[in-house]
Amino acid sequence: MKKVSVQCRNIRLSYGSTEVLRDVNLDIAPGEFFALLGPSGSGKSSLLRLIAGFNRHTNGQLLVDGQDITDLETWRRPVGLVFQNYALWPHLSVWDNVAFGLVERRVDKAQMATRVGAALEMVGLSAYGQRRPSQLSGGQQQRVALARTLVVEPQVLLLDEPLSNLDKTLRVQMRQELLSLQRRLGLTTVFVTHDQEEAMTTADRMAVLDQGVVQQVGTPMQLYDEPVNAFVAHFVGTMNALPVVVKSAPGLEAGGDGAWVLEVGGAVSAIVQVPSAAAAHRLKPGEAAWLCSRPHHAVLREPGTSGGEQLLWLTATVQDREFLGEFVRYRLADASAQALGLHVDAPHRAAQVPRGVGQSVLVGLDLSQARLLPR
Ligand code: ADP
Ligand code: MG
């Protein structure tokens, strides 16, 4: 099958006077598994429905394989949408649910039988054609919805939170199944989710959406390692953010030495340097910023032990901890038990005794891994 691109150019959408998509620009490559990640209400479903033709944009262009499909009726578009709630017909058998789109398109009986049979086989439900949706598990209903969409042979597959109604184990299994099916078919896929892990584990590239605005597009690793703002940084993982003020920018002052010089405020009071690569932004001296780092880019030591290069050391107490198997996540407070908003992930080994709540520790934040983001 031909692999096609999807492009959104300056797409705007309003419901009445409420703007829900603002100048959305996306370039989705042929055959790509593209995730659209954002909190509830950020406009993810609105954008999918717009690509499928259920919403009309007020501005901009929507291209599939380079052709503007804005004026194409929904059913003529080369796209298939799997709805979040599956939207199966309860009174029809699995077979008839899957056949539905072909009946609509007046496909002849013989061809219909072949295509429905193939679609059910693709999702592993050949034996279930005569059942009603209510006689299937959530995961099986999900597969019927997928078969019903694939049977019309779309060039673009749109999935709206396809796994959110399933329990955790099935969700992990189904996301692998979806991905391998997508790879096999080479179908350009837009996968909507509010689950950061789901997006990161499946996507070739992803976009983070907030309040109808695309915040950043990139590979999961790019977004995790180089978020462009605090929203993305927090949304794709846990982030430690210390408030700082820029004292000098790389190359601006003698002695700055190609590094950022920062004054760390709040409970921590220190002047630190971070590599120039910590920020792609043009932050100016005097400007407020966040010094951000991930929980596994920090270490815990006994108070009084000597520090090390490239680390910002601060004293803290353990506020609480969570044992997650691979590591223990500590939340830290200052000496007066005020939360610092800092998390440290310490790798766990068998028989290792974790630090207790209230215990005093020295925290070292790895400044070579830190990022400087606008505040
Ligand atoms: P998401 O899928 O990211 O949760 P939606 O695209 O469903 O977000 O919704 C985006 C915004 O548009 C929300 O504020 C929602 O309340 C609003 N909205 C969605 N559908 C409609 C509609 N048919 N009429 C009016 N407002 C809507
Ligand atoms: Mg939605």
Explain what you see.
- With 375 residues, the chain is α+β, with helices and mostly antiparallel strands.
- The chain has two domains: 228 residues, 3-Layer(aba) Sandwich (Rossmann fold); 137 residues, Beta Barrel (OB fold (Dihydrolipoamide Acetyltransferase, E2P)), CATH 2.40.50.140.
- The protein has eight helices and 20 strands.
- The strands form four sheets. It has a six-stranded mixed sheet, sandwiched between helices.
- Helix 2 packs across helix 3.
- The two termini are 47 Å apart.
- The model has no long low-confidence stretch (mean pLDDT 92).
- Bound molecules: adenosine-5'-diphosphate (ADP) and magnesium ion.
- Magnesium ion binds next to helix 1.
Question: Could you give the topology of this structure?
Answer:
Elements: E1 6-15, E2 18-28, E3 33-37, H1 44-52, E4 59-64, E5 67-68, E6 79-82, H2 94-104, H3 109-122, H4 138-150, E7 156-160, H5 168-185, E8 188-193, H6 196-202, E9 205-210, E10 213-218, H7 220-225, H8 230-235, E11 240-248, E12 259-264, E13 270-275, E14 288-293, E15 298-301, E16 311-323, E17 327-333, E18 339-347, E19 360-366, E20 371-374
Parallel strand pairs: 3-8, 3-9, 6-7, 7-8
Antiparallel strand pairs: 1-2, 1-4, 4-5, 9-10, 11-12, 11-14, 12-13, 14-20, 15-19, 16-17, 16-19, 17-18
Helix pairs in contact: 2-3, 2-4, 3-4
The chain binds adenosine-5'-diphosphate and magnesium ion.
